[in-house]
Amino acid sequence: MRVYDKYFMRIGNRASLSLTVVGDNRNIFISAIGAGGGSGVLFNFSLGAENDMVEIVQKSVEQMK
To answer: Are 62 and 41 a contacting pair, CB within 8 Å?
Structure first.
């Protein structure tokens, strides 16, 4: 299990990616969960950065096929 965090200072938003890889000799299970948001109560919304982080994992796995 790994957790990655990215902070965007200019707009005060953050994105994180929780990545879990479990496998045996025949099967590999990969879970990539993205989360994100802004600062404060009024501006706690996502601009899509967490989806971008999950897509990086998805594209990497597809290249390995």
So the answer is: no
